[in-house]
Amino acid sequence: MGTERGISYRVAMVDDLPSERRTLRGYLETWFHDRAELLLSEYETGEAMLLDFAPGRFQIAFLDIRMEGMDGILLAKKLREADPLLLIVFLSTAREYAFDAFPIHPFDYLVKPCGYEAVSKVLEDAVRFLTQEESEITLRVARAPVSIPLSRILSASSQGHSVEVVTSDGGSLRTVMTFSEFLALLDGEERFLVCNRGLVINMDHVLTVEGEAFRMTDGSVCPMRTKRRAELTARFAQYQISRMKRGAR
């Protein structure tokens, strides 16, 4: 099978050890060789990557966790704030950092030394995820239908007889429907969580859990219903774990 014309993937690699970068580079080049064009950018430090980063610059990022200077967890937090859609794959010599990685919504977590088969599996899942057809819903806004990808919905809240939808690009849409009717459009989408009365969030856009609230990637704060705090945090944690396990599905 030859490389497919016109298809390329933008991948970043951050590791402060040249030998580790060399090994991973070899795996990536081997896997992409007969599949698609690999556009690889290598960085020795997190600071160097941030200087070269912009939302949409990369599709997949392999980040070592333990590095001199900025570690991979802090780097990932900054990347996630800027680009909620970036697929982050952590690399570490220990599993102990997995808990710290959960709030960042990594695509996968590989324990070093990881062989070609492990990296290959991650790439297969990542490319499948990137090429799958995006789910959309259609809302009536100002008497005109507007289709919006579910991945762009950050949160939605009931506003009397309408629903205000906040999008990941900083905009918002108001559609005339009940909150129950809006939730029906999201049926079967596990990424959405009703965290309070008349308020639903996209867990893919949660940055951190702070007390009794979710802080979203746009900086907004979505409060939890106090009586359901334990249930909501547990569901969020379970969703994070399921995302981490996508490579095994």
Please render the helix and strand layout as text.
Blueprint: E1 8-14, H1 18-32, E2 37-43, H2 46-51, E3 60-64, H3 72-82, E4 87-92, H4 98-101, E5 108-111, H5 116-131, E6 136-141, E7 144-149, E8 153-159, E9 162-167, E10 172-175, H6 179-185, E11 192-196, E12 199-202, E13 206-210, E14 213-216, E15 221-223, H7 229-244
Parallel strand pairs: 1-2, 1-3, 3-4, 4-5
Antiparallel strand pairs: 6-7, 8-9, 8-12, 9-10, 11-12, 13-14, 14-15
Helix pairs in contact: 1-5
Account of the protein in words:
The relative contact order is 0.10. It is built from seven helices and 15 strands. Helix 1 crosses helix 5. The strands form four sheets. It has a five-stranded parallel β-sheet, sandwiched between helices. The protein has a five-stranded antiparallel β-sheet with strand order 10-9-8-12-11, with helices on both faces. Strand 11 and strand 12 form a beta hairpin. The protein has helices spanning 18-32, 46-51, 72-82, 98-101, 116-131, 179-185, 229-244; strands spanning 8-14, 37-43, 60-64, 87-92, 108-111, 136-141, 144-149, 153-159, 162-167, 172-175, 192-196, 199-202, 206-210, 213-216, 221-223. The protein is an alpha/beta fold and 249 residues long. The two termini are 25 Å apart.
Radius of gyration: 19 Å
Percent in helix: 25-40%
Specify the number of helices.
7
Estimate the mean pLDDT confidence.
Answer: 89
- The strand count comes to 15
- Shape estimate: globular
Structural class: alpha/beta
What order do the strands of the largest sheet run in, or round the barrel if closed? 2-1-3-4-5
Q: How would you sum up the major sheet?
A: 5 strands, parallel
Low-confidence segments, given as residue ranges, are none
Percent range for β-strand residues: 25-35%
Distance N to C terminus: 25 Å
Helix-strand pattern? EHEHEHEHEHEEEEEHEEEEEH
